[in-house]
Structures are given as C-alpha cells and as structure tokens.
Amino acid sequence: MLIKSKSLSDAAWKDLVAKHKLKDNGLLKVLEKLKKFGDEDFDDALKALDEASKLAGQLKKDKAIAAAPPAAKYIGDLLGAADTTQREITKSKADADKKKAEADKKAAEAAKRSEAEDGDDEEETPELLTTKLKPLLRLVMKGETVHALLAKAGKRVVVMLSRKPIPPARRKLLNDQLGGGSTKYYPGHCTTERGAVTFVLKAEVAGMSKLVKAALLEQTGLRVNKIKCRGDDGDDHDDDEGEGELPAGAAPGDDEPGADALDAKAQTIHQAVLAWNDSTASATTELRKLQQLVLGLGDPRAAPVAKGLESILQRLGTVDDEAEAAATAARAGDAAGFDRARDTLVAKLRNIQSYVETDELIKEADSNPLMDIRLSETLGQSIKAILAALA
After folding, report:
1. In a domain, 171, yes or no
2. What phi and psi, each to the nearest 5 degrees, are found at residue 199?
3. Of 79, 98, 117, which residue is a domain's last?
C-alpha cells in the first residue's frame, strides 16, 4: 500500500460525518481511493492527493466544520498529511524513475557494446581503408574530429580513420595493405585547422604531408588540397603547400581567400555564433527549470546538486569576443589577421566541445528523470556548426 498515514483514513472521516451530522463534499470517496493504490501507482496517488487537498480546503471554510472541533482538527491534520505524503511520493517516483533510467541506460550501453563488438568483427576488411574511409574524411572537412592511425613503409603511407579509438589489432590490416615488411605506425587524430585537413600524430612528422595526400587520393579518390601533419605537442609540423595540385574547377590563387570570400566567411561566422548564443540561452532556461525541480523534491541533498548544475552555465562561457575578432579581420580583408583570430576561436571552441562531450554533470543532467533535457546534443551541434563555418 502506497499511502499509510492515519490522518488520511477514510474511516475516521466517515465516523465524524455521521457523529456530527456533517455534509461530505466528495472527500470520503477520494479517501477510499487512496488506500487502494499500489506501491508504484505514483501518478494516480498524486492526483488523488491533490483532489483530497482541494476538497479538504473547501471543508475548512465550512462553518459546520468549524463548529465541530474534532472535525476541524481532522481536516487540519489531513491537509498537513496530504502535503507531506505528496512530497514523499514525488521523491519516491523520482528515485524509481532514476533507477529505471539507469537500468535502461545500462541495457542500451550493453547492447551498443555488443553491437560494436559484432560490427568490429564484420568490418575487419580492406573497405575500412577505401569506401568506409571516404565519408569519415568528408566529416573531417566539415569540422569534426576523428581518431586516426597512419602506417608508413618506405615512401608509402596508408590512412585509417574512425569515430572510435582504433585498437592495435587494426595495425595488421594497414600492414597487409602496405605489403608487409617493416612498418612504422602513427596514432593520433584528424581534424581541420585553418582550412587544412590536419593529422595530429604522436611521432615525428617530417615529410609526411605529401605522402598522406597521395595516400588519401589513392584510397578514396578525393584530392584534398591542403594537408598538414603535426606532432601532438604542436612543436613539430609538416605543411603541404599544394604543389600546384588543385581541385577540379579551381584556378591558381584560389587557395588564398580574396576579399569577397573573407566577407562571406564573416557573415557565416556571425550567423553561427548567433545560433550558439541561442543554444546557450536555451540550455540556461532548461537548467534553471531542472534546478527548481530538484530543489522542489525537498531532499537535503538537492542544494549541492543545484549548485553543480549552476557550474555548467559558468563553464560554457561565450565566444563573442573571439568571433568578432575573426569576423572583423575577415571584413577588412586581413587574411593573416583572420587566421590568427580563427585559431584562437577554434582553440576555445575545442575546449568547450571537449567539456560538453565528457563532463559527468552534463551527462547526469541529460539522463535525469525529472524532465527531458539534451544539453550535449544541443550544444554539440551548435559548436560543430561554428567549427564548420571556420573551416
């Protein structure tokens, strides 16, 4: 039985009505319903308690009730018990929903892991280096970051990209593609920096850019105009300056943005930042609602949780100043100034992106049982849009 308070007993109210010849306004019927609810009938019980509180509130104003002290006391006790019981049931419902959400999440993760493991077994084919490489390379060109593993034997390089960390077992596939023999491996990730497809690798990268460019053309048929390889500490880098190779339909000099192109870039950045500001404003509104729901549970542990949610807002910050610096340089036709400002903006966005994707508080907020809130999805999409605008 979900409701056990003696102050919500229908028998006591029935006796008072008969003894003092009082007029029942429907309260008795509602109290009879309360004792029938099972341990998980949270919503029905809350609805009935709300109805009982309203009816009891009406009776409290009745002169006949006021003239019968035992009845007046019962109504007062009932109102207090109804309020307390509503809070208890709300908390129990939240706990039950949270446990269910956690169980569902674990089941989904287990299914996803199983599917991924099955998928890995199926995908151990040369297609990982050709047809399945092409869409990942296009994602990088749009501003996303993926894991990378390069293999080099002599003057030949083979490239592998993946959304997930690449296991060491994949090295055999790359080695076979190179024909076996002595092979050096370069793990890292692939992203876009200053308009160039960039491989950030945990090894010396001298002379790698030209080889990577040739490998991508051979593996995917895509001619990437600007390739850069650098060490993950940022000190060691190797740029491919194009060597006259241009995409189909391009003309010499297209690699250097003109005034019109920079002005268009300024407008694109401006629109993307407006969208980011809208996303953070929406996230703020949703987090404020969640804070109130958490505090409304009446649990002493609620305050630290609400404070933790507040820290999310403080960490998001704004990118207006950095974006304006990039847009101003673009409007002025200052290509070098635009590149510097863009690098600063991209670095800040990458930090925010990493925070949004990995922070445990954001994950807990997204999976809370009190309301539907999708911070990582909303903010993540907006960040990707700005990064794509800066590419």
Report:
1. yes
2. -100, 115
3. 98
- Same domain? 223 vs 134: yes
Contact 262, 338 (CB under 8 A): yes
169 and 58 both lie in a single domain:
no
Residue-level pLDDT, tens digit, the chain, 391 residues:
567 777 788 888 999 999 999 999 999 898 888 878 887 888 888 888 888 889 988 898 889 988 999 999 999 988 888 888 888 888 888 888 888 888 888 777 766 655 544 444 445 788 899 989 999 998 898 888 999 999 999 889 999 999 999 999 999 999 988 887 789 999 999 998 887 899 999 888 888 999 999 999 989 888 888 898 988 765 556 666 544 333 333 333 334 445 556 666 667 776 777 776 777 777 777 777 877 877 777 766 666 666 766 677 666 666 667 777 777 777 677 777 777 777 787 777 787 778 778 878 778 777 878 778 777 787 778 778 777 766 6
Residue 189: strand, helix, or coil: strand
Global confidence as pTM: 0.36
Query: Quick one: 206 and 268 in the same domain?
Result: no
Q: Are strands 156-162 and 184-193 parallel, antiparallel or unpaired?
A: unpaired
Query: Is residue 247 situated within a structural domain?
Result: no
User: Using CA atoms in the order 379, 315, 144, 178, what is the torsion angle rounded to 10 degrees?
Assistant: -140
Domain boundary (240, 268, 302) is at 240
Q: At which residue do the structure tokens 């009932």 appear?
A: 78
Tally of residues, the chain: 391
- Helix (H) or strand (E) run with residue 109 in it: helix 69-122
Is residue 317 assigned to a domain?
Answer: yes
Same domain, 68 and 139: no
State both tokens at 137: 């390379």
The whole domain housing 132 covers 128-240
What is the domain-level CATH number for residue 311?
A: 1.20.1440
Please report whether residue 123 resides in a domain.
no
Domain count, the chain: 3
3-state percent helix, strand, coil for the chain, nearest multiple of 5? 65, 10, 25
Contacts of 23 (CB under 8 A, 6+ apart): 17, 62, 64
The DSSP bridge pattern shows strands 156-162 and 196-201 to be unpaired
How many angstroms separate the CA atoms of 34 and 55, rounded?
14
Q: For 321, phi and psi rounded to 5 degrees? A: -65, -45
